[in-house]
Design brief:
The protein is α+β, with helices and mostly antiparallel strands. The protein is built from 19 helices and 15 strands.
């Protein structure tokens, strides 16, 4: 059921009409097509379309479609990775050589918009109300700063619960947990240790994703928030945050459903795939990993929302922005809107195994053929993101050591979050 590149390219031909945005409709905002009004040589900085397959998709399939619409525009592509992206963006801002179109992560837009690096897209017709016709409100909010739109979503990365139903059935369960109490009970029952106490199977794996993202997912499940509504103070150190981290540490230290060091975000194989975990918090791309490692597992991978006082589902992702200093802003916005339109966005998500942000793509062959991506899209109204304050990129680096200090028993959950909250408040005040 996987969508073909030919089909993706065909969808791209009708992308603009479906998205109803301003610059990619065959006629630009000035009413011209190919007459030089939308023209110029522009640069694109992107951490997606990586590798030879991604480069071929962008340069051999997608950009030719864009050039057919805008023959007077030339795009120079600068490929990077997410590990290098922040450094590249920071260096470009410092040098004054900012790319015309920049892709960046959820939580990054606020800081660069606050510094005046990004063009205000609301001033060119991409308003919050217009975008919410095509995206869930929380996804639109990820590209906003101070009530204006500065970015369009391209793709999402989601985190939620995933269970190995074959292992659950062996233990007498016919469905994943629906409450925290059920989660704890089932995780203990599904944990397997050898006679000498060595962990052979984690009942609930929490260590295969970034500690920050793991904690935030459980924070949302507890009904908590990262920051106050006005973004003036942290809220993750609230009673809900402490409750979430106490659940996490309790599962490891008291219930012993997983041992620190049993898995890690850079593990070669996710423990759900080799049977070393029965349940876990996972990235949606575990489906793609299973397709490559052992397709027979696909029928046994069951997604579920981590339900505490609220649905616990996290999303990050990639958004496209335009430089506020672009010499060819019309061409830059035309490219941005093209990349965010259904055909190109679908092809980019398929290439990476990610979740399309556009609501209408739920019905595509690719989404319907990938149960975890389909589950993510069907539950996007419950998903929440990271980020918020302009200093988020500085604050987020403090989460991992704070969470790990609680996991290792060096601090209580409350102490760890109090110290993290104090560091976050200092950063916010400095901003």
């Amino acid at each position: 059921m996987k969508i073909t590149r030919v089909h993706a390219a065909a969808v791209a031909m009708t992308a603009v009409a479906a998205l109803t945005l301003t610059a990619c409709g065959g006629t630009d905002s000035s009413g011209s097509e190919g007459d030089g009004t939308v023209s110029g040589e522009i640069s694109l900085l992107t951490p997606i379309f990586e590798g030879s397959a991604g480069q071929r998709l962008l340069e051999d399939e997608l950009l030719p479609e864009f050039y057919a619409e805008y023959p007077d525009v030339k795009v120079n592509v600068d490929y990077t990775t997410y590990n290098q992206l922040n450094e590249k963006l920071t260096t470009s801002v410092a040098s004054g050589l900012v790319p015309d179109v920049m892709m960046m992560g959820v939580g990054w837009v606020e800081g660069f918009a606050d510094r005046g690096v990004l063009a205000n897209l609301s001033e060119t017709g991409l308003t919050k109300d217009t975008l919410e016709e095509s995206y869930a409100p929380e996804i639109v909010a990820a590209g906003m700063w101070e009530d204006d739109v500065y970015a369009l979503p391209i793709m999402l990365d989601t985190r939620f619960g995933v269970a190995r139903m074959d292992l659950l059935r062996e233990a007498g369960y016919d469905a994943p947990p629906t409450t925290w109490d059920e989660l704890e009970e089932m995780a203990k029952a599904l944990t397997v240790r050898s006679s000498d106490g060595t962990l052979e199977r984690a009942g609930f794996d929490m260590l295969s994703i970034d500690p920050r993202q793991m904690f935030i997912t459980m924070l949302y499940s507890a009904g908590g928030s990262l920051f106050t509504d006005d973004l003036s103070a942290p809220a993750f150190d609230s009673p809900e945050g402490v409750e979430a981290l106490e659940l996490i540490t309790g599962l490891i230290q008291d219930d012993k459903v997983e041992d620190v060091g049993f898995s890690a975000p850079n593990a070669d194989t996710n423990p759900l795939l080799n049977g070393r975990a029965a349940m876990g918090i996972a990235h949606n791309n575990i489906w793609t990993q299973a397709q490559e490692a052992d397709p027979a597992l696909l029928d046994d991978l069951e997604p579920f929302i981590l339900e505490g006082d609220a649905p616990g589902m996290f999303f990050g992702g990639t958004l496209a922005t335009v430089s506020s200093t672009s010499k060819h802003p019309e061409a830059a916005q035309a490219l941005l809107e093209f990349l965010a339109s259904p055909g190109p966005a679908l092809a980019a998500n398929e290439q990476r195994g990610n979740v399309p942000a556009l609501t209408e793509l739920l019905d595509s062959e690719y989404v319907q053929g990938n149960r975890l991506v389909q589950f993510a899209m069907e539950n996007l109204e419950s998903a929440r993101r990271e980020g918020g304050p302009a200093r988020w990129l500085e604050i987020r680096g403090e989460f991992k050591p704070a969470i790990e200090s609680a996991l290792l028993g060096q601090k209580t959950p409350e102490e760890a979050l109090d110290d993290l909250g104090a560091a976050a408040q200092t950063a916010i005040d400095r901003g």
